[in-house]
Amino acid sequence: QVQLVESGGGLVQAGGSLRLSCAASGRTFSSYNMGWFRRPPGKEREFVAVISWSGGSRDYADSVKGRFTISRDNAKNTVYLQMNNLVPDDTAVYYCNARRLINNYWGQGTQVTVSS
User: Residues 107, 9: contact at Cβ < 8 Å?
Assistant: First the structure.
């Protein structure tokens, strides 16, 4: 079982930056691929970024490439999402995800609001 707690969301003006954190419980964090997803208002949840268990592989949605960076610190059981040059379309609830084989866990989400 893995429990995930996101933090770092808030209100920011367009062009600003935020750093989201996701703290995970459990001793097996380093074996999980970790991802960030988001649900914009009135829309379905969508993929944002993913990082492999070792940190050696990363992938991003086209809409955030070059602006967002995912990273992890396995010693701290934490995954991060650095978000730069934010735009109003980035407004959403952001969710942390941990996945390994058939195991799939979600955090409760953190709200990010970007004003124009």
Answer: no
Beta bridge partners of 106: 97
Q: Which residues are CB-neighbours of 38 under 8 A, at least 6 positions away?
A: 45, 46, 48, 90, 92, 93, 94, 95, 112
**Residue 83 Cα to chain centre, angstroms:** 10
26's tokens: 């459990």
Please tell me what DSSP assigns to residue 30: G
Token code pair at residue 3: 């429990």
> Residue-wise pLDDT tens for the chain (116 aa)?
899 999 999 999 999 999 999 999 977 888 999 999 999 999 999 999 999 999 899 999 999 999 999 999 999 999 999 999 999 999 999 999 999 999 999 999 999 999 99
